[in-house]
Amino acid sequence: MSSDLDPLGQVAARLLAQYPVRVRAVERLSRGERSSTFAVQGEDRRYVLRVCPARPDRTVEHLWSELQWLEALDRSGLRGRVPAPVATRDGSALVSVSASASGGDGGAALYGVLLTWVPGRTRGRWGPTTARAVGALTAMLHEHAQGWRVPEGFERPPVDERSPVLHALPERLGALGLGDHVGRVRDALDRVYEVLRELGQDRRQVGPVHADIHHGNVLFEGDRAGVIDFDHCGIGPFACDLATTLFYLRARTDVAALREALLAGYRSVRGLDEAQVHRLPVLILGRHLELMSWVLGLGLAEPARREQASRRVAADLDELPDLARLAGLAD
């Protein structure tokens, strides 16, 4: 790799040096608040390098646990449809380097994970056939999760009523001048917490979930679907994955047909009882609230984003009554 790389590119180069991969080319794919990703071309295959800091809400233990699940999925019938960790020369799936330009010990640690490349392309507009394939893939993830014995020490953020992102929402609204909306947001949160607790009582329907299955994270190679970006994965009710997908389809005029196809695809692989289906509107509302809190959190962390975050969440608050009605909440 070239010596004139920017600092993050230099970090990527030092991380890649620890893997038994002869690197031909590296291209940055994204740079985000949680992590940055690079496409890596080896001699005969492609990889993705993810570079991220350890943070209070994404600890080293969280990273290790994500990799454990990905390794288990790769060993199952989902090989090639999910990214799999690549081991370093020392046999580790997770490596770290100093963030300092010199590579010494003076900088904070940045962690790297090299993953196999999932082939395919995203589809901008899903039809029923695509939705059905996504439903089936989601069920495959859950079928594996239900039968997988979670290793001792496995630690991922909760995707249930304990979610710190959801619990932070009222305070964040107040901090960005939207405190007048806290009352109705609390009512909505209480309903979401209630449903998450109800679903959590059936341990057969709780386990590792992807928590971010949408257009940007599902890749298609012909008719075969694969899923990437497990950065948000956690432990929660399996129905949350279906609700997340439906949340991103909610504005479509054909959402009813897409919903039917998604659930039919899921049921072609795994059972789905009506109690879970009945609660999906509340979980969709929960996803809406979660994203509001996440946007507000970015605005509070970065002053330059505050105005943009406030405008975005004000628009989300305008949509809240409609989602609340669908979830069975009174006006």
Structure explained in plain terms:
With 331 residues, the chain is of the alpha+beta class. The chain folds into two domains: 7-116, Phosphorylase Kinase, domain 1 (2-Layer Sandwich), CATH 3.30.200.20; 128-326, Aminoglycoside 3'-phosphotransferase, Chain: A, domain 2, CATH 3.90.1200. It is built from ten helices and nine strands. It has a five-stranded antiparallel β-sheet with strand order 1-2-3-5-4, covered by helices on one side. A two-stranded antiparallel ribbon has the order 6-9. A two-stranded antiparallel ribbon has the order 7-8. Strand 1 (25-31) and strand 2 (36-41) form a beta hairpin. The longest helix has 28 residues, at 274-301.
End-to-end separation in angstroms reads: 59 Å
Low-confidence stretches: none
Helicity, as a percent range: 40-55%
Report the average pLDDT across residues.
93
Order of helices and strands: HEEEHEEHHHHEEEEHHHH
Task: List the main descriptive attributes of the protein structure presented here.
five-stranded antiparallel β-sheet, alpha+beta, Aminoglycoside 3'-phosphotransferase, Chain: A, domain 2, Phosphorylase Kinase, domain 1, 331 residues
Task: Describe the secondary-structure layout.
Layout: H1 7-16, E1 25-31, E2 36-41, E3 46-53, H2 60-75, E4 95-98, E5 109-116, H3 128-147, H4 164-167, H5 169-175, H6 182-200, E6 206-209, E7 218-221, E8 224-227, E9 234-237, H7 239-249, H8 255-267, H9 274-301, H10 306-326
Antiparallel strand pairs: 1-2, 2-3, 3-5, 4-5, 6-9, 7-8
